[in-house]
Design brief:
By secondary structure, the chain is of the alpha/beta class. Helix content is about 35%, strand content about 25%. The protein has a domain of about 170 residues: 3-Layer(aba) Sandwich (Rossmann fold), CATH 3.40.50.300. A hairpin with a 7-residue loop joins strand 1 and strand 2. The mean pLDDT is about 85.
């Protein structure tokens, strides 16, 4: 489903601030595969997602989605095939519009443009059904503006927005980092539910090493723009956070020292 061939991304090339954020990186995901990504600050995790989503243009290499070369496809075109949830609950929604209006926009991205009522009754019914499955009571607040929701409620809604039309690829960029532990667990449970229900090909960047091993079927660790560890199968099943830290030190030659990484 996703094939990345030797991509490189350099910020401020030729200057004193030159930074190679992605260094000759290759990665392949099969259809329906759920990969978690861990690494310290500056490892290149979010830059990788931005390159896949088209926010950033790579300096070299190729990116293929579903067999199609999207290396130079603009972000707005990729958004028809790629769903994304950001770390900041304020992103990914139109805060001054209602829940129903946000859902209508997300639902229309795969539809043919034309003159028709903004929100049909059948669509409104579908939206309520989808919201009810979140278990947050949002189906009873469908005319309420999104800006009045809590961070956890908004992230749950953003997940629904990103998947209401099944994307070919779902990108989750530390989407629980700004939430309290209870809301984080709720959103992670919902994440697993939606991914399993729709068999979504997913990349999830996380700051939580326990979540990186608990969710998905494969875990990669990044360091200085490269993948230094790719865990799957029995090796991943038997992996612990403590062993993961040891692997990082051995592969990178450095001690993992990052206050943002949650170890438990």
């Amino acid at each position: 489903m996703l094939k990345i061939e030797t991509i490189t991304k350099i910020f401020s090339p030729g200057s004193i601030n030159e930074k190679k954020a992605i260094d000759n990186l290759s990665l392949t995901l099969d259809k329906g595969e759920f990969v978690t990504v861990i690494g310290g600050n500056g490892a290149g995790k979010s830059t990788l997602l931005n390159c896949i989503a088209g926010v950033l243009e790579t300096d070299s290499g190729k990116i293929y989605l579903g067999g199609e070369d999207i290396t130079y496809m603009p972000e707005y075109k990729r958004s028809r095939y790629i769903g994304r949830v950001f770390q900041d609950p304020l992103l990914g929604t139109a805060f001054d519009m209602t829940i129903e209006e946000n859902l209508a926009i997300a639902y229309s991205k795969a539809k043919t443009r034309g003159l028709a009522p903004g929100i049909r009754k059948s669509q409104s019914k579908l939206f309520r059904e989808k919201l009810a499955r979140l278990g947050l009571g949002l189906e009873n607040r469908i005319q309420q503006k999104v800006g009045l929701l809590s961070g956890g409620q908004r992230q749950a809604l953003t997940l629904l927005l990103a998947t209401i039309v099944k994307p070919e690829l779902l990108l989750l960029d530390e989407h629980t980092a700004a939430l309290d532990p209870a809301a984080s667990r709720q959103v992670m449970d919902l994440t697993r539910q939606l991914i399993m229900e729709h068999q979504l090909t997913t990349i999830m960047v996380t700051h939580n090493m326990k979540n990186a091993l608990e969710f998905g079927s494969r875990t990669i660790m990044m360091h200085e723009g490269r993948i230094i560890l790719d865990l799957q199968g029995r090796e991943r099943t038997e992996m612990t956070v403590e062993k993961l830290i040891e692997h990082f030190s051995r592969k990178s030659g450095e001690v993992l020292d990052n206050d943002r990484l949650l170890l438990i």
